[in-house]
Amino acid sequence: MPEISADDVMIVNAARCLSNDLACFVGIGLPSTAANLARRLHAPDCVLIYESGCIGSKPTRLPLSIGDGELAETSDAVVSVPEIFAYWLQAGRIDVGFLGAAQLDRFGNINSTVIGDYAHPTTRLPGAGGAPEIAASAGEVIVIIRQTPRSFVERCDFVTSVGFGRHAGDRERLGLRGAGPQIVITDLGILRPDPVTCELVLTDLHPGRTAEQAREATGWPLALAEGIAVTAPPTDEELAALAALKAA
Description:
Layout: H1 6-16, E1 23-26, H2 30-41, E2 47-50, E3 54-55, H3 69-73, E4 77-78, H4 81-89, E5 96-99, E6 103-104, E7 110-111, E8 114-116, E9 121-124, H5 131-137, E10 140-144, H6 170-174, E11 181-185, E12 189-193, E13 200-205, H7 211-216, E14 223-230, H8 236-247
Parallel strand pairs: 1-2, 1-5, 5-10, 10-11, 13-14
Antiparallel strand pairs: 2-3, 3-4, 6-7, 8-9, 11-12, 12-13
Helix pairs in contact: 1-2, 2-8
């Protein structure tokens, strides 16, 4: 049996976080892969929403961008971009926002804008898109990101999308209606916010991974939950569905 990649473990665990009948606002890339895997496996009625205005997309292959015609052709409805944000997201009709990130800090803030100084960046990233509004207004946010010292940073070079700001209470102070990032899935494990401080805490490790590996891949002193759990290995069914999705 071929070795299971760290990315496959991460995607499968992210897909497991979505349940049926949710309205999920999906980012392109890893979030879209995980969301479409969930719909194929255990959540066929999960409503996938993309910021181009596609509601209830059921793509037969992974979309290349939010403008991919496959999303519109397989949707239940296509509305204008202002409508998807004003009447769906900002109106509180989105249960889960599913996002990726280039950088993530200890309070779940996301950077997808620049690496380095904003005026003179070492790397200019794709940018915000709808992520700031998703992070602000979705019922809760799930983040999927590979865990390295470059991506898990003490402080984001630029905050594109607010998680919990700088400490507990910042979301409320800023008037953000959603609960913020409740689950962060990486190629090493799963993190969740501390209920008091809102700092991300390692709660689960993937099979074969260690807390020391997670700490070495994190740019801040990573807190560990008591009794860290181990995630269930991907099943043959999950791996076969993921392989079919990638090959489509």
